[in-house]
Design goal:
It is found in: Cell membrane. It is a multi-pass membrane protein. Its main location: membrane. InterPro entries: LeuE-type (IPR001123). By secondary structure, the chain is an all-alpha fold. The chain has one domain (about 5-215). It is about 80% helix and about 0% strand. The protein has 9 helices and no strands. The protein has helices at about 5-20, 25-35, 35-70, 70-95, 115-130, 130-140, 150-175, 175-185, 185-210. Helix 3 (about 35-70) runs antiparallel to helix 7 (about 150-175).
């Protein structure tokens, strides 16, 4: 796997997961609908900042683990692949039960008056206090590390890709708040997103589990 292959493959997974409604999406959409546009953009940047911090932190931990123990690294990569499989299956099952697998568009967010700086703090704080973001990076980064590349550097690159995709999605939410609200309230659209994302995660997870013994 080359660096370009790793980045493109990660972008597919991260891009699909970005479309799955969650707390961050709910937070930015609510900011776009109830606050000023500058406040919404600041909230989106705060979320992206938190994701970048999580990604680099996960890369640092993975780099240290790789240095300390090859066995521990292999265990981590296998566990990450299994997690991707489980997440994919959970999303597909939930979509047939009538609800998105990780949807949280109905989540309540605090009413925070004030400046764009406060919006950034809310976005960053919400993301940094969400352990699911850390789990995502810890589970996925090892799967997309080409041979002879720095885990720290590659982790930062992958986190940057995720942030870019996230900001693109948030831009669509902010600029098309009314359309986004209707789309996110359509259970059929959300079910399709969950099923496609779940299938991709299962495919990646299954391939990684099969490849794990030969790594």
């Amino acid at each position: 796997m080359t660096i370009l292959d790793a980045v493109l493959a990660f972008a597919v997974v991260a891009g699909l997961l970005t479309l799955v409604p969650g707390l961050d999406t709910a937070l930015v959409l609510r900011s776009a609908l109830t606050r000023t546009r500058s406040y919404a953009w600041a909230t989106a940047l705060g979320v992206a900042t938190g994701a970048m911090v999580w990604g680099v932190a996960a890369a640092v931990g993975i780099s240290a683990m790789l240095t300390a123990s090859e066995l521990a690294y292999r265990v981590l990569t296998t566990a990450g692949a299994a997690y991707m499989l489980w997440l994919g299956i959970s999303m597909i099952r939930a979509s047939f039960r009538g609800g998105p697998g990780t949807g949280a568009t109905g989540a309540t967010t605090p009413e925070v008056p004030g400046s764009a700086w406060r919006g950034w703090l809310v976005g960053a704080g919400t993301n940094l206090l969400n352990p699911k973001v850390g789990v995502f990076y810890i589970a996925t980064i090892p799967q997309f590390l080409p041979p002879d590349t720095s885990p720290l550097l590659m982790g930062a690159v992958l986190a940057g890709v995720h942030c870019a995709l996230t900001m693109t999605w948030f831009a669509a939410l902010i600029l098309g708040g009314g359309w986004a609200r209707r789309w996110l309230s359509d259970p059929r659209a959300l079910a399709v997103v969950d099923r496609v994302t779940g299938a991709v995660l299962m495919a990646f997870g299954g391939k990684l589990l099969l490849d794990a013994p030969s790594r």
